Amino acid sequence: MRTPLIVANWKMNKSIRDTETFVQDLLPLLSGVTEVEVAVCPSFVSLPALRGALSGSGIRVGAQNLFWEMKGAYTGEISPLMLVDAGCSYVILGHSERRQIMGENDAIINRKVRAALDAGITPILCVGETLQERENHMAREVVKEQLSRDLKDVSFAPGGMVIAYEPVWAIGTGVNASSDDAQEMTGFIRSCLARLYRREQAESIRILYGGSVKPENIAEFMAEEDIDGALVGGASLQADSFAGIVRFK
Ligand code: 13P
After folding, report:
1. Phi/psi at 231 (nearest 5 deg)?
2. Would you kindly state where each structural domain of the chain is located, as residue ranges?
3. Structurally, what CATH architecture does the domain formed by 5-246 represent?
4. Is residue 211 lining ligand 1, measured as CB closer than 6 Å?
């Protein structure tokens, strides 16, 4: 049984004060939620405030990026060990915004995935096709390639890896994938993982859907066999809509 996982990706939003206010609003809305794991990934500068505000709540803290070296002369970068020190359980890697805007390629993402695991942080590895790739019937091919390159020589303990299927055309557009299409792709992702790893290992990996997830559509996604949770952007910025997603049942 895979425990459902709902992750907030705040991207480049919220001050330290906003972070504290969000948690004050969120905690009462989530009281009594025990069957869903929740994680919030703020900006680096809000990590200490978030960790403090969430302490004792069971909600996990995650980061949105890391550098692949543990320490050294890498001006401006944040190491996996620093994230461990800041209390991070998860790190989002391979997000399409970093692939497209920051030019991260699969070789870079692979180094980051391995560095996260070496430090004991669970990667949330994002994969997904662009609209053009979908229209050209290349979605499966693209996602398969991303998985095999990003996970090259990557090993992890059962449950120690999360994949997020985020079709690029559904991110921040308000146009979500249909639950059928999302299941088709997440099922395909699991079959790719079963080729890269043993079947039990592939079965242990939680696969999230991301792309315009809202309180109104989360239940449809969660009803699908291979969707184990959601990676939420815009709708994670307000405590009430994020809580509405966590309380999908
Ligand atoms: P939206 O939920 O705003 O579409 O963003 C999805 C996303 O990119 C999460 O990582």
Report:
1. -110, 115
2. 5-246
3. Alpha-Beta Barrel (3.20)
4. yes
* pLDDT tens per residue, range 113-162: 999 999 999 999 999 999 999 999 999 999 999 999 999 999 999 999 99
| Active-site entry in 37, 95, 97, 104 | 95
Rounded CA separation 144/14 (Å): 34
32-to-41, 83, 97, 217, 223 alpha-carbon distances in Å: 22, 28, 34, 22, 21
Taking every pair of Cα atoms in the chain, the longest distance, rounded to a whole number of angstroms, is 48
Q: Which helix (H) or strand (E) holds 9?
A: strand 5-9
CB 42 within 8 A of CB 233: no
Choose among 43, 52, 54, 48: nearest CA to 15. Answer: 43
Question: Could you count the other beta carbons within 10 Å of the beta carbon of residue 202?
Answer: 18
pTM exceeds 0.90 for this model: yes
Dihedral sign (CA 246, 63, 238, 212): negative
Backbone angles phi, psi at 132, to 5 degrees: -60, -40
> Does the Cβ of 9 fall within 6 Å of ligand 1?
yes
- To which residue do tokens 């792309």 refer? 211
